[in-house]
Hints:
Helix content is about 45%, strand content about 10%. It folds into 2 domains: about 5-15 and about 85-215, Rossmann fold (3-Layer(aba) Sandwich), CATH 3.40.50.1000; about 15-80, DNA polymerase, domain 1 (Orthogonal Bundle), CATH 1.10.150.240. The radius of gyration is 17 Å and the shape is globular. Helix 1 (about 15-30) packs across helix 4 and helix 3 packs across helix 4. The chain has helices at about 15-30, 35-45, 50-55, 60-80, 90-100, 110-120, 145-155, 170-175, 210-215; strands spanning about 5, 105, 130, 160-165, 180-185, 200. With about 220 residues, the chain is an alpha/beta fold.
Amino acid sequence: xxxxxxxxxxxxxxxxxxxxxxxxxxxxxxxxxxxxxxxxxxxxxxxxxxxxxxxxxxxxxxxxxxxxxxxxxxxxxxxxxxxxxxxxxxxxxxxxxxxxxxxxxxxxxxxxxxxxxxxxxxxxxxxxxxxxxxxxxxxxxxxxxxxxxxxxxxxxxxxxxxxxxxxxxxxxxxxxxxxxxxxxxxxxxxxxxxxxxxxxxxxxxxxxxxxxxxxxx
Length: 217
């Protein structure tokens, strides 16, 4: 039997919280809007389409959402390009899983250009079987669409997939997809994400055997 592991990107493949916060602050400043750091963390993991109307405090047209979203992500890529680093233990874990026959996917709320930049800089292009990004879905997390589409692309049943997440919305999306979820405490404290099936502080705590146990293997 082939199993799948689906990683969220932001806060899971890389520590993208600070550059995302900076890019939102830059966008807000460009448009004369106030923004609190708590607003950023409360909405972390959701799509720009969900976040932007909250930031602007009004309904936005599709064109406005597209324009502001593109600008925000352009700012983000400018901050991280050439500086992408994975969390300690992550890449060895992925390599180990691949050797054991696992399929690896990425399910992110971020746009395609962000996902492709990160996969390229982390050297994961030839390892990741499939990825799903914001352009591929109509509903953001906590809706399970992003993980269900990734599993379908990988050709693996949701019940045979494990998701790695860092956000409350992401954990809910994984469970609603019928998948087990491992949460890592990179952006949230353990008490906020303890509804995951397993909570870890570092990837060095994980082995393929521990992940397989979540699936009853």
